[in-house]
Amino acid sequence: MVFLRLLTFLVGLYIIFVTLRSVVRTFLLPRAAPDPVTRIVFLGLRRVFDALIRRMKTYLQRDRLLAYYAPVGLLILLATWLAIIAIGYTLMFWALEVQIPGLNSWEAAFTVSGSSLFTLGTATVETLPQKIATFTEAAIGPLLIALLIGYLPTIYGAFSKREALVNLLEIRAGSPPSAVDLIVRYHRLRRLEEIQEMWVPWEAWFSELEETHTSLPMLNFFRSPIPEHSWVNAAGAVLDAAALVVSTVDIPFDVKGPLCIRAGYTALRRIADYFRIPYNPDPKPDEPISVTRAEFDFACEQLTLEGVPLKPDRDQAWGDYAGWRVNYDTALLALAKLTAAPPAPWTSPELREQRRPPLSGRGS
């Protein structure tokens, strides 16, 4: 019996260790550290949400529901941590032989654990080991709640910073954002060469995206305040625009474009790594991509109709564009599916065959 109680105590201690490790990995560790507890909670909740959105006919209905996914997931994650801590300490209190008149040993252990975790003070203990366990559990419960509350400003601060450029992109690239619209708009304003300056803030945006969306993975699922916006679609539009400018648009070469593309596909790949999304880390420039040659040629026709200067060798331009796109193609489409991003050109299967004309007016 002594061996059984010792084994039970060690199992409870291990459960508590695993839970606290999950807390540290999720909120405190400043790097990507996938955690099984967090993963199980969010995957299980996602299955529930997926089952619900299958019954919805429109994207707006699905978006309204999915907006609750990440916040509800955080609350369930906190509840899961508290429940596991309570189970772990229940095992420890049973091993320490706590007693409450009128209750059996397991009921007494659970009562003391719950009273300690939520600092209710409804159950008392006698021995020193029991008191030490009570005090430590009483410290852990409020600490977990305080950590979540304390990190909410960090999470929403990173979210607001991400959304600032996403919202500004609508002014330049429409909604949903289109790489062709972005280039055409700059050309109509007679500022085509100045488009190169746009890659600088987006390079920084991608760098911050990589850091925040791997160290705080729930941020990936926080949806934009405007249903038609998405950080994934914004990333795809900017990367495609930069790739088109570097490969196809006939303006002086600027290193800012390639640097932005590299920052972009590096960020998307690191996020894909966290979610175990497979991709080729060293693709060849001529490997197949989701954008077809017909779609590329149609985009070039749109740009030509608007008077955008293009490089004369269309085959070379296609090869160069595909050579850039292949670096982020798989990760981009997978993240769009993972986050249930709204339909957008060259990102969503729903618009694979759509041929949307660039912009509708001649104004800015």
What does the radius of gyration come to?
26 Å
Order of helices and strands: HHHHHHHHHHHHH
- Helix percentage: 55-70%
What's the pLDDT, averaged over the residues?
Answer: 91
Structure summary, number of beta strands: 0
* Shape by Cα distribution: elongated
SS strand fraction:
under 5%
Largest sheet: none
Number of helices: 13
Give unreliable regions as ranges. 352-364
Q: Structural class of the helix and strand makeup?
A: mainly alpha
What is the gist of this entry?
This protein has helices at 2-28, 36-53, 59-66, 69-95, 105-117, 128-173, 179-188, 199-215, 231-247, 256-274, 293-305, 314-325, 329-338.
Offer a few descriptive terms.
13 helices; 65% helix; mainly alpha; 364 residues; single chain; elongated
Q: Helix and strand layout, with pairings?
A:
Layout: H1 2-28, H2 36-53, H3 59-66, H4 69-95, H5 105-117, H6 128-173, H7 179-188, H8 199-215, H9 231-247, H10 256-274, H11 293-305, H12 314-325, H13 329-338
What does this protein structure show overall?
- The chain has 364 residues and is mainly alpha-helical.
- It has helices at residues 2-28, 36-53, 59-66, 69-95, 105-117, 128-173, 179-188, 199-215, 231-247, 256-274, 293-305, 314-325, 329-338.
- It is elongated, with a radius of gyration of 26 Å.
- It starts with a helix and ends in a 26-residue tail after the last helix.
